Every structure is written in C-alpha cells, then in structure tokens.
Hints:
8 strands
Amino acid sequence: MNIWSRRTVFIVTIIGVVVLSIVFYQLKFAKSDINAIKVVELISTEQENPSNKIIELGLPVQLKIPNLKVDAVIEHVGLNDKGEMAVPTEATDVAWYQLGQRPGAVGSAVIAGHYGVKNDIVPVFDNLHQLKKGDKIQVTDDQRTVMNFTVTKIASYDKDADATEIFSSDDGKSHLNLITCEGTWNQATSSYPQRLVVFTELE
C-alpha cells in the first residue's frame, strides 16, 4: 500500500470516528430532550387539573363542628317524593346529597341537618346559626381521610327560593355547604319558612 492509500484510510477512519461521535451526542441529548418534554407535560397537566389529587375521594361518614360540639354520622340521601333533597332519618345525624359532589371534590357538596327541638331531642343543626365566618368544619371519609373546611358565608333563603348557588359553583374550588331550616314552624304548611345555609371552602 502506498503512502496515499495509507493517508486515505487514516482520513476516512478519522471522519468515521467524528461522525459517530456526533450521532451519539445528538441521540443522547435528543433522549434527554424527550424526557424533559415529558416532565414539562406532566407538570402542565397537574397545573391544569389541580383536582387530580382528590379524584379518588372516599364516601363521607362523619361531620364535626368543634365550635358547636357537633359530631354526627353522615347518612347518604337522594331526592324525596317531591323531588327535593331528602333529610336524615335521625335528628342527630346529617345527610349528604349523594347525587351531587363528594366533600373535597371541586364544586359544591351539600349536607343537611334537622332543626327545631322535638320530643326533647336537640337536632344536630339546631345551633347552626351560631357559626361565624372563619369557623372550622371537618369531614372524615370512609378511607379515614380528614378534610378541613372554613366558613366563608352564612345566608338565609326563603324555602321556595332558587337554590342553585347552594348545589353548584364554577370557581374551581371545593365547597361544602350546610343547610337546615330556620324560623318559626308553620302548622298550616307543616314547614319552616326559611332555610339557613352555611357556605364553606376546603382549606
């Protein structure tokens, strides 16, 4: 082999090594870029769906209101024969509207309780009107997850008023709204004239 052939082989070998190095470098960083993209996509998805962490919520089983010394079992109810939210079977229990949101989920979960002493039994929400903005409410689900809510507003409604804002919200937050009767018992209509609603927000 003459000097030109040796020189040619040497040059080709050098070029080959350089080309392979460049390809390896590009593949390595291309893989890193793909991994980076996946991480960015994951973070973006979590930011766009902040409720992902509470999708797998359990069923609510216990309600506590420390300031009122309330510690109640949560019944699960739907609608009654009149198409209204059903009430708890026991005066000392509360009832969660299971056709709506679960406590802790984005939207408005609703829990109702009785009002008005009967047969010397003080109903669970007889003193609900004593709550104030900033007071705490606690819900425990059947997975033993404890959720803490803070009172944000208290309002009274006529019993026939539009209840849309009690059962729904569109602010992307998790709400728990407590509802009970209010006012003086009307013997003629067998009902109370108002509804007291305590609005809360998940901490």
